[in-house]
Amino acid sequence: MTGDAQKERTLQHNKMSTPSEPKNPRSRLLNVWVDNLTLAELIETLDQGVVFTLNPDHLYHLQKNQAFFDAYTQADFITADSKYVYWGLKLIGRRIKEKVSGSDIVPAFCIHHANNHETSIFYLGAAPGIAQRALERTNARAGRNLAIGAHSPSMNFVNDEAEIAQVIKIVNESKATVLIVGLGAPKQEIWIMKYRHAMPNIKIFMGVGATIDYEADAVKRAPGWMRRNGLEWMYRMATEPRRYWRRYLRDVPYFWLLFMDRLGMYRSPWSKTPSQTQG
After folding, report:
1. Rg of the chain over all Cα atoms, to the nearest angstrom
2. Cβ distance 268 to 31 under 8 Å?
3. What angle do CA 45, 209, 30 make, to 5 degrees?
């Protein structure tokens, strides 16, 4: 492709805006937009809003689940939670600055707000007792009660209106300003968008999957060299095969969809018009 042709293609892509007015520059990957922010820039910018962390499994669900897609279109911040998202954007010519995973956002956020007494955290998710352990470890590192609430709901939580009402009551009574949700995708994203207005004291919502497990030290993260080289999936498969093998198997079509996107042939299942990019 010549330089002029590439420039024309980019100009055509840029004609279509994102579903909502973004605060930050964004690049499209399939039918979702990713913020072009470093971890440091995100932490400095994040004073309110909803944060989702995009990985190939989310991209799978974004092709299958319209409620999940609708939730994503309302997010204020969307980061690249995976090296494969980061590399995918680079491959199709819409490079972002860096991978910003949920498991990096939460500890960085806690360090940034360790002495900010206007910020307080509630952990919602993970297995029984894990959220409480995350709370205790967060406060030990911060040297104060930065995390002031924790709750591990039942497996059927998102389908039980009575339990949802009880959890919302617990969150509201805590007076926390940040809700960190680890229910897994697509449940956590859909739940946040459906019920966020019932928790008016919460300024920041984060859907961060297994991050609560990491904060509790209940699950070990892959070594740094594996994370830097996109091999965290291999570590997870080796340590938790029952949890991850189906997920990684269904993520394989991502690479085909990425190829179609690179050729300008990708079509969102939720739109009759070709998806375009802002980059």
Report:
1. 19
2. yes
3. 75
DSSP H helices, 100-160, are: 102-112, 130-142
State pTM to two decimals.
0.86
Q: Which residues pair with 33 in a beta bridge?
A: 28
Dihedral sign (CA 246, 247, 250, 253): negative
Cα end-to-end span (Å), the chain: 18
Q: Distance between CA 99 and CA 13 in Å, rounded?
A: 23
> Coil, strand, or helix at residue 251?
coil
d(CA 62, CA 77): 16
Question: What stretch of H or E contains 49?
Answer: strand 49-54
Tell me the one-letter amino acid at 129: G
Q: Note every long-range contact of 236-245, with CB atoms under 8 Å and residues 24 or more positions apart, other chains counting.
A: none
Closest CA to 279 of 97, 95, 79: 95
Asked whether the beta carbons of 82 and 54 are under 8 A apart, the reply is yes
Task: State pLDDT tens for residues 30-61.
Answer: 999 999 999 999 999 999 999 999 999 999 99
Q: Does position 277 have pLDDT exceeding 60, yes or no?
A: no
Distance CA 34, CA 48 (A): 18
Please give the angle made by the CA atoms of 191, 194 and 195, to the nearest 5 degrees: 85
Cβ neighbours, 10 Å, residue 229: 11
pLDDT for res 247: 63
Q: pLDDT by residue (tens digit) across 58-80?
A: 999 999 999 999 999 999 999 99
CB burial of residue 246 (10 Å; 0-12, 13-18, 19+)? exposed
